[in-house]
Amino acid sequence: xxxxxxxxxxxxxxxxxxxxxxxxxxxxxxxxxxxxxxxxxxxxxxxxxxxxxxxxxxxxxxxxxxxxxxxxxxxxxxxxxxxxxxxxxxx
Length: 91
What we know:
Number of helices: 5
CATH class: Mainly Alpha
Order of helices and strands: HHHHH
Distance between the termini: 30 Å
CATH topology: Serine Threonine Protein Phosphatase 5, Tetratricopeptide repeat
Number of domains: 1
Radius of gyration: 14 Å
Number of strands: 0
Structural class: mainly alpha
Largest sheet: none
Strand content: under 5%
C-alpha cells in the first residue's frame, strides 16, 4: 500500500465512522428505530467497534461492542455462536 492509498483509506474510514455514528445516534434517540431492525444496528455497532479497535481507541470500541452484544443476547440468547464471538471481542 502506498502512502497515498493509506491516507485515502484512512479518510474513508473517518467518513464511514462519522456516518455510522450519526445513524446510531438517530436510533438511540428513537428506540423504535433500533427495535425495528436489530440486525442492522448489530452490524453498525460491530463495524464502528472494529474501526475504533483498529485505531486503538479501545474504550470507545468496547462501548459499541457492548451495544451489539446486548442486542444479540436479546435476539439469539446466550448459546448462539454470534453471541460467543461478541464475548470474544469484549475480551
